[in-house]
Design a protein that fits this description.
By secondary structure, the protein is an alpha+beta fold. The protein contains five helices and five strands. The protein has a five-stranded antiparallel sheet, with helices on both faces. The longest helix has about 55 residues. It starts with a helix and ends with a helix.
Length: about 170
Amino acid sequence: LAQHRFEVEFLYVSAGLILTVLVTTRLALVFADDERARTSAEQSERRFRMIFEHAPLGISLGRDGMMTETNPALQELLGYSGEELARLHYSAVVHPDDRERMRGFLSRATTGGALSETQSRDVRPGGEVRWLYARAEWIDRTPGLRMLRGILQDITELAEARDQLRKAKDEYRF
């Protein structure tokens, strides 16, 4: 009986040790997975930040007409700092004659999430007018938080050449 009792106790202790090892191993794997996921998320954020900061095109992220995040290329293009742009409604930089069309453009971009494209004039702080090509669409950056991503390019020279060509055609029509 003592031998049988010893064997049963040994089995319980052994099972407890095996269970402890299994739980500890599983916890170690969970923590390792969490660490890998955290490292992967950090690497992804670094890649996004590098692309965002060094892109040659202006990029903005925002909602409700506010450009909450802008890259250096857009800040240079519009003539405002990132902090200034974050406090401005987009319409503050749009040429007054183009504001109504831009409202329609943003409305199209916000309904259905489809990519929307347009050209508009923007006014820099010193009053200089620049032509911009803009593409916008809604993105889901964080679950439950939709943001509008805008990509803008200066097309002033192209717009001026187009106007000169139109004037030349009008002038030389018979």
